[in-house]
Design a protein that fits this description.
single chain, mainly alpha, 83% helix, SigmaK-factor processing regulatory protein BofA, transmembrane helix, transmembrane
Length: 77
């Protein structure tokens, strides 16, 4: 009985870890795509020269297009 309970708990924990990991990968990928779309729009449609560093792309992976928009506003002023 104890072994079966341990196996059941282990399977639930492994399932939860994989679910969180794939959600995170999907979210980071979506954020990078949206960030690049905002970068492309700022550079090519609004003609705002947005200078993105590696740190800004890391922030874009976490926060989405928000850092790109902030940098575009800073460069346009």
């Amino acid at each position: 009985m104890e072994l079966t309970l341990t196996v059941v708990v282990a399977v639930v924990v492994i399932y939860t870890i994989f679910k969180v990991a794939f959600y995170t990968v999907k979210k980071v990928g979506l954020n990078l795509i949206l960030g690049y779309a905002a970068f492309y729009i700022c550079n090519n449609f609004f003609h705002i020269p947005v200078d993105m560093t590696v740190l800004m792309w890391f922030l874009t992976a976490v926060l989405g297009p928000i850092p790109v928009i902030v940098v575009a506003f800073m460069h346009s002023m």
